[in-house]
Write a structure and sequence with these properties.
By secondary structure, the chain is of the alpha/beta class. It folds into two domains: about 1-50, D-Maltodextrin-Binding Protein, domain 2, CATH 3.40.190; about 70-100, no CATH class. The protein is about 35% helix and about 10% strand. The longest helix is centred in the first third of the chain and has 15 residues, at about 10-25. The radius of gyration is 18 Å and the shape is elongated. GO terms for molecular function: DNA-binding transcription factor activity; sequence-specific DNA binding.
């Protein structure tokens, strides 16, 4: 089974599950690709993908497997330079790097 999993999620959340699956089902061979890039399941030969967020307009079938919790954090230097916003909205427009790390 070939699975695509986000790099920002896979090593910390999926890898422990994968290890338990391998222990319980030693005959199951899994190939996991950790990447935050949106993969083409058919063209690239994946059996399934785990994604965090909403499935945009697509012919793919999605199943929710759990909730997603997020946090907004900032260093004291960032708050000193930009202030402490009440919501994440203003932050997303201030610094492109923040979106790359989210």
């Amino acid at each position: 089974m070939r699975v695509a999993v986000p790099l920002s999620f896979g090593p910390t959340h999926f890898a422990p599950v994968l290890a338990e699956m391998a222990r319980r089902h030693p005959q199951l061979h899994m190939q996991t690709c950790y990447s935050d890039r949106f993969v083409d399941l058919i063209t690239e030969g994946y059996d399934c993908a785990i994604r965090v967020g909403y499935l945009h307009d697509s012919n793919l079938i999605a199943r929710r497997i759990g909730p997603v919790y997020t946090k907004l954090v900032a260093s004291p230097d960032y708050i000193k330079a930009h202030g402490a916003p009440a919501t994440a909205g203003p932050v997303s427009h201030q610094d492109e790097a923040l979106r790359a790390l989210s």
